[in-house]
Each structure stands twice: as structure tokens, then as C-alpha cells.
Structure prediction request, 814 residues.
Amino acid sequence: MKPIGPLPPPFDAQVGVLTIAGQPYAHWLTKAGDTPAFVYDVDAVTARISRFRAAMPAGMGLHYAIKANPFPPLLAAMAPLVDGLDVASGGELATALPLGRPISFAGPGKRDDELAAAIRAGVTINLESEGEATRALAIGDRLGVRPRLAVRVNPDLELRGSGMKMGGRASPFGVDAERAPALVRLVIDGGADWRGLHIFAGSQSLDTAALIETQAATVALAARLADAAGAVPPLVNLGGGFGIPYFAGDRPVDVEAIGAALGEALTARADLLADSRFALELGRWLVGEAGVYLTRVVDRKDSRGETFVVVDGGLHHQLAASGNFGTVVRRNYPVAVAGQMGEAANDLVSVVGCLCTPLDRLADHGLLPRAEVGDVIAVFVAGAYGLTASPSAFLGHPVPAEILARR
Amino acid sequence: MKPIGPLPPPFDAQVGVLTIAGQPYAHWLTKAGDTPAFVYDVDAVTARISRFRAAMPAGMGLHYAIKANPFPPLLAAMAPLVDGLDVASGGELATALPLGRPISFAGPGKRDDELAAAIRAGVTINLESEGEATRALAIGDRLGVRPRLAVRVNPDLELRGSGMKMGGRASPFGVDAERAPALVRLVIDGGADWRGLHIFAGSQSLDTAALIETQAATVALAARLADAAGAVPPLVNLGGGFGIPYFAGDRPVDVEAIGAALGEALTARADLLADSRFALELGRWLVGEAGVYLTRVVDRKDSRGETFVVVDGGLHHQLAASGNFGTVVRRNYPVAVAGQMGEAANDLVSVVGCLCTPLDRLADHGLLPRAEVGDVIAVFVAGAYGLTASPSAFLGHPVPAEILARR
Prediction:
């Protein structure tokens, strides 16, 4: 037996039929037309944003990294509630522009046409290298538009407990901290509109103490870099890194403690940064737990002592849940039988997807209430890095519906 | 330094500019319009099919598992040259039907609408369970069409050296061998047109001796099952499992030795199978080495002693090359600088994709000729499980062109 991951609230307290945004799951499946489907509870996202606002020091900006979930109706609902949208490609830029919010554009491989589109639109480009800075300045000259450029920094510190390390080591993201002041000067002396610093030390950390320590160190680093560059950053993007629980034993981060500590760090910041604004950039933490993936049992079969519950979805929609995206040891995501929430889990099964590959396993040797053909399995924490981070064309299945749920 | 995987022939012998199907790579990029792009050499695929025909005993059927690469022009070119197409979803069925070839449909989670479409079209369904058999028979009754049904067997043997084990253990694929005779009887007594057995022990094996041994054991198993069922299988699909080299140290399978041994195994087969036809079902081995993924260098940067070559493609098109699809230890695929084939490789770099995630790495600490911004990097063995097995919507980049190359 391998433990099933912890269901996020409010689902962990539900008994009987799974409800999402106050309606039974069948209501959303009727809207979707069929399984498999993703349902995103926009009220849960709004509540997350409110919690962030309440926890963080006054004036702290909140950016949404749309790569976590770019579903257009969700994005439209979130855009007015956040202070900026971070995009990672020309395609995401085109999606975000009509929303009329401030946009920043990060990513290590921006092409000239992407830089040109961003500069034309007045978007802030988070520069990943000296070479990219030179290209952006030249494109600005050619277009006759003063580019808005921030400098992304590969910090000389690492976010402990981070699922994805992005600082403290060699990195394709940003320039090493010791080179950042010179790049700031290159931007300013090149005539661009310097927008500040972007310092991202890691992501998906559940270690509250490490997040607090990293944020304080990032504020201090920003001050040192500003001092060395002889220029005050208008904005310091402190990155994000707030993780969410996926696996047995995971505990959520204490956002209120982080906010309080960040308030202290900002109060104590160097005078040089007195007029700088600060922002955090979050993706997964805002939307991950708001999403549920619903997939129907097509078959139930035994083989050599193991019971397989075969569903009509799979890794083509939920690659990360199958353990094939950035994980070394496969562990079970939170899953449940949607009609039997909170009921006794004493049926030892593996939930496998419909793809003709042994990789397609959504739960491995987990205990669930007994699911029969026609029942619906819910995979939780499906709101971030779900459909768009999965090989949806694999084996030619239809694209699943995505539904925005609200009360 | 980590070794780069072995370039497949004919690319391993090229010097100077990479040529595909007799034309320099730039020719194909002009057709594609832009990088990144996939180029598939259809002549290389045809040569593979010819090699298979020459190596195998007379009458051995060849099925193509289209999930390996369902690019429609490639499929259209291959369809007349093989004896059958294997599909794994209703979507693949719809793609294959217009080609007018015999079709079989395997996959553990077939929905009722998929079974109905297959039965209506006269396609052979490889049954994965007793439950699926019962559903197929009922759907046939409802439609007034006699379904064509084969029985997929989870063999009591395992393909050694197999990258993906599919036999010898608990499996969602097929029914355990000891239950297969009863399922054959259920199909026959239910009035269906029984088409035979499908026995798949594993895939991506580079162990020639293991493949030979497994095929002989599979023929013997088919005889035992036929005897127990009291029925002669019209067709025995022996599966596939021929691997191709991806990583340093990998050696290709000896298809001629496999063909000779299979000829002996068939000559020695039980009398009961005298009138049975046999087929192998291959995907990766037919198309994998025929594909090249071309992506352009957008940036070149240093960080803490490591050099990053940043390209405009990445794991959204080549998930397996990034080490995030079914691999435990990340190793380097074969990659090269397309303008400097066979030249001295003394630049130690990591080739990273354009996605804003540390997972997006196409080569890790590999030695290549020096690549500058604007140069093109070729990733080889990109013809199977490439674009459709990757999260192409991730981060909103355009879908890359796919080009069919021929002389």
C-alpha cells in the first residue's frame, strides 16, 4: 500500500458526494458534456488572493504567473484582482495583453519577434542575459520605442526545500548576482526604462522558515545590487516559491507567518530601497488547489493479485500526477471516488489511465472506497500545471473540457 | 561531462552540414518556415520496412502502432507498405480509417463510443478484459454487427532488457495468460468473429537474445492457449519490442538474427498453429531514427562556470529528450550542431530549451562543437514519441512544423 496524497480543503472535509463551488460534481460534468474534465473553482482562487492580501504587508504587489493555468476564463477572472501578469512566451503575451493589466515577460529563450512584440506593447521584459539585453536595446532602437527592461538575477542563495531549485547554482535563468549591477548599468546607459530586479530563488517549497529566510536574503541582495549599480530599482520582484501539498506528509506553508516576517524585512530594509515597490509572483499557490480533474471508470480488472481501476482520462491530461514530470520517486497525488467522499477506504487498487503505456498510472496501490465501472474518480490539486503541462495530443484522445465553477 | 547519445546512421557519418534525405537541413527549415521543426525522412522509414521484410520469415505480417508517430503524411506513406495499423483511441481510429488498411484497436480504457465506432467499421478490437468483452458483445448485438474480437494476453513471461515491461507481472494490459482461454471461449460462444491473440511482452528492448527468447516463448504460449481454448487463432500478434539506441553504450538490435530465429520457432510450432498467421507490431523501431528535431540557438550564456546554449525549442516538443518521460536517470539523447557535423566536440555546454522551468534541458554537460546564437541544434531519434508525446501547449509557444522529407 502506498499512501494517497492529502485532499486540499474544503474537499478533505466532504462526506458523500463531492461538491465543487457548492454544486455536486455531476452538475459540472453536465456542463462539461462528458468526462474527463477539469473544474476550476474561481471562488477558491479569489479566496487565495484575499488571503494573500490580508497576510502580506501593505503595498506588496501580487503577480500571477499565467503558465500555471492560462485557461482564458480563469485568467479573465483573476486579472482585475492581481497587480500584474507574468508571461513566458509570445503566445502567453498575446493571451494576456487584452486583459489590460501590467505585464512582465520572463524566460530564457525569448526570440527577437517575441522581444519586439513585448517592446511594442510596453511590456516589462525580465532580461535573462547580457545578450538578451543587447538584442532588446537594438530592437527598441529599430522600433523607436524605449524598452521597459528589468534584470533577472540568479541569486547567490538557494531556497531550501524547493521542489525546483532556481538559485544558488549555475542556472539558465537570469544573470549571476555578481554580474547584475553591470547589466543594470548596461540597461540604463543604453537608454532603456529600467524597471527593476526580478530575483527568483526557487519554487514549490513547503518550508515556511526557508521561505522567510530566502525573502529576507532577497531583499538584502536587492539592496546590495542597487548600491553596486548606483540606481534605485522601481520594483523588486521577490519571486514566489510558495508550495502546495501534493503528497502524504506535505504540510501547507504558513502564509501569514511569511507575510509578517516579510513586513519586518521590508521595515528593516536599506534606505536605498525606501522608494522601491515590492511584489511576489505566484502561480501554483493561487490556482493549484482550486482545480479538480474528473475522470470516469471504464473498466475494473484484476491481474496477478493487483486490481486496476481503468479510467477514461490519464497522463495526457495529468502528466504530473502520473509521476512523469519533474519527480524522481513516484508518489500518489490526492485522489478520491467522487461519489464516496470520506467513506471507508479499504479497496486496494491502482488507478490507471486509458493510454496504452505502463506510464499512465494516476494512483499506485492506494486505498480507496470501492469504485465500479461508471463511477467518477477525482484527482485533486489539478488547477496548476495540469492540462497545458501534459501531452494532450498523445494517443489522439479528445481535448477535455475545462469549466470555470462559481457559486 | 556526460556523454552525448549515439547519432543514428546515416547522421553518424556526416561531416560538415547536416543533410536529411539528401538535402542540407536549411532546405527543410525553409520548407518549415521557422525553427523549431521536426523533419521525418520517409525513405529511411521505407528502408526500415524493407529491412524487416528481408529479415523476417515469409508471410510474417508487419503492423504499425501509429501512436509512435501519427503525422498524417507519414502515415499515408507508410500505410500501403505495412499489413495493418494499430490504433489506441477513437481519435487514432478516425485518423487510420480513411487509409483503407486492416486496423486493430488496443488500449485498456476503451469507452463504449469507441467500441461502437470500431465495431461499426469492422475493426479488430484487442480485448483487454472480460468486462470489455462483455461490453463489446452487447454493443455488437445492439448495432446488429458481428464484432471482430481478438484477445490480448498478459503473458506469464517478461521481455528482458525491456524499457517498458508489459508482461510477467500484474498489468492493466490484456488478461493474465491463465484466463485467456476462457475469454476466447466467451468471445466465440458469444457469436463474435474471433480474430486471434495479441501477446505483448514489452517494448524498447535492445537485447537481441531476449527478444529471440521471448518470441519463441510467445509462439509456444499461443499454442498452449489455443489448445486450452480448443480453437485455432487466425492471427497471432507477437507484439514488438524492438528498441533503438538513444544513449551512450546502446547498441541496435540484430533484426536479421531475430528474423532467423523466429523462422525456426515458427517451423517448430505446434501443428495446432499450422494455419495461423503471425505478425509483429512495431512503432518506435520503424520511425524513431527517421526523425530529426531542429531548434535554433537564441542565447549563449555562462553561469557559475557552466555554459548554457539556449534554444527556441524544448521539452514542450521533446519531452523524452529532457528526461521527463519514463526515465529514472536522465541521460543525453543524441544531439549535434547542425552546421558542424563530425567536427571536434570540445565545448562543454548544457543545451536548454526556452521554457521557464529547470526541467527544460535537452543536453546536460555535453561536449559539442561550439554553437553560437543563430546556429541550429539537431536532436536525433525524434521520429517516435516526439511531438504528440510532449506537452505542446505548455507556456503557449507555437506548434512546430512537421515536414515529410523525401529524396
